[in-house]
Amino acid sequence: MPLKLYKRPSGLYHIRGTFKGIRVDQSAGTRSRDIAEDERLAIESRISKESIHGRAAVVGFGEAAIDYMEETGQRRFLAPLITYFKDTPIAKIGREDIERAARQLYPKVAPATRRRQAITPARAVISHARGTRPQPRPKEVTRTRWLTVEEADALILHAGRLAPLLTFFLNTGVRTSQALAVDWSDVDLDACRAWVGPAKMDTHGHWAHFGRRTRAALAALPHREGAVFLTPKGKPYRLPKGESGGNPIKRGFNQAKAKAGMGDDVTPHILRHTWATWAYAVNPDPYRIGEHGGWATGEMPRRYVKLAPPGYGRKVIEAGWELFGLEQPENESPQYLPSSSQTSRNVP
């Protein structure tokens, strides 16, 4: 049956009744019967569309966000999104609309921050309105793998054109995006150092120090202008955009590790774990490791450092890896220990 209008003693019209199984009992918010009738018809139209296409086809983002907050108790980061989307129907909001909103709301932040403060909460509201639940994020896999000096040598031996880059990784502990962005104007071969910019929220720009082994690898490169590390075609690498942009050296790296007899647990990022583990074995000073690794906080190295066998720092030095620059003495006094959940041993 259609909904009905009732006039209250105050003169305001009220809409009441059951339409397509949906009970309605609300004020029309007006003393004009014509306006109240338009509101009644609009409610019936909305209920009809919702019964055919689902609630997401008619509900606006603002209303959906309020429902989401009331049911889940989650309110963080939603206010700017509600202001941006207002009553835009959920059905008309797609991936590109969410990403555009994220860029406009947070134009100067890192991609990870933009995802956390805009993209993720917007998707959560939309999924809630559609009656679907986003898949739970997989638990973070704790990496316990690191390379021994013998494995590192084998990887470099089979790396071909990537050998100087992998040597730079292992000697400095920088991320892939940081290394590929290094320009020759950022490099001081005499002082054995290169300036690398920040990569993520847990890193900052810093001087990456290296030793004679890396200096020889860089000095052997045939060019001295532009990007230090080039593709097999002699072009600068196209840097990935965001965290899901992929790793531009993945193919060459996988070929090298396969030839060296290594498995899927060895990735380019494992080289950063390797550097941290070697650095701790050489000198377990949290401040020095944090500064040379470019970490923004002293706690971050705990996620990367693994416990190598006793005396392994000497083995690292004897293999020619001067991790803190030239003439760095070994110091194995136990001043800094990673948490027990982050430790492992690779016995060479």
Automatic annotation (TrEMBL):
Organism: Maricaulis maris
Signal sequence bounds: none
Membrane-crossing segments per the record: none
Alphabetically ordered keywords of this record: DNA integration, DNA recombination
Renumbered residue ranges of the record's region Disordered: 329-348
Domain annotation Tyr recombinase: ranges: 142-318
Transcription is among the record's keywords: no
GO molecular function: DNA binding
Gene3D superfamilies: Intergrase catalytic core
Domain of life: Bacteria
Protein name as it appears in the record: Phage integrase family protein
Polar residues: compositionally biased ranges: 331-348
Pfam families assigned to the protein according to its UniProt record, in alphabetical order: Phage_integrase
Gene Ontology BP, a term: DNA integration
